[in-house]
Specification:
about 15% strand; 3-stranded mixed β-sheet; elongated; 3-stranded antiparallel β-sheet; 8 strands; alpha+beta; about 230 residues
């Protein structure tokens, strides 16, 4: 689709954009594109497990035993478990190629969720092992079956733990020349975008150059060129 036909969906007008918890499928902005919020900063030392080595060894042993009991002994010896301080809002992450499960250190504040999170991520690795080289959806039927086999049949795709989301201050403010609605952005808009509401109201939802967003101000930067 040509760039000029890309429409800008409605932004939140708070001036602060949350990098997590928004849904790009609804057209709402998230944090810097292509960058995970877990890649910024480090987790405070107080959030790390008191004895990460010992606890990790126990978790790894449990995970390997689960794999062996389900006929996946071939990959049990390749499995690794770690505490990753770069994880901020995700409870865990599974790398099927590396056979690596990463856990968020904030889980130590919710000890009853550690084993469940371990099994959730292990289900990803088990499901991919069973599928072989065939690509499978992250939370499809294969993953759900693996969850059943791992004793977490009612597992959800996302956790509901109160992990704080990282926020980013909007540095750029754009305005629709027609309705005068303002759109704060974390990054400068690099393509032609227009006010979706005005395009829908006056042009059947198609891109209209009359409603192209204009840079109003660059917070903390030099004034925009006239």
């Amino acid at each position: 689709m040509p760039l000029l036909r890309q429409l800008e969906f409605a932004f939140r007008s708070t001036g602060i954009l949350s990098a997590v918890g928004t849904d790009s499928s609804r057209g709402e902005p998230v944090g810097p594109p292509g960058v995970s919020p877990g890649e910024f900063g480090a987790c405070p030392a107080s959030k790390m497990p008191a004895s990460p080595t010992a606890e990790t060894a126990v978790l790894l042993q449990n995970a390997r035993e689960l794999l062996r009991s389900l006929g996946a002994a071939h990959i049990a010896g390749e499995l690794h478990v770690e505490w990753n301080s770069r994880l901020k809002t995700a409870a865990g992450r599974a790398d099927c190629r590396q056979k690596l499960i990463s856990l968020n250190p904030q889980l130590v504040e919710h000890p009853t969720e550690i084993d469940r999170t371990l099994r959730h991520e292990l289900a990803h690795i088990l499901a991919q092992f069973r599928a072989g080289r065939r690509r499978i959806p992250p939370h499809g039927v294969e993953w759900r079956q693996a969850c059943v086999d791992l004793g977490i049949a009612d597992e959800k795709r996302c956790h509901n733990l109160p992990f704080p989301a990282r926020t980013y201050a909007a540095r750029f403010v754009y305005r629709c020349p027609n309705c005068r609605h303002e759109f704060p952005r974390v990054r400068r808009v690099r393509r032609a975008v227009a006010c979706l509401a005005c395009c829908r109201k006056h042009n059947g939802g198609e891109f209209d150059l009359r409603f192209r967003l204009r840079l109003l101000t660059s917070i903390g930067l030099r004034p925009p060129m006239k």
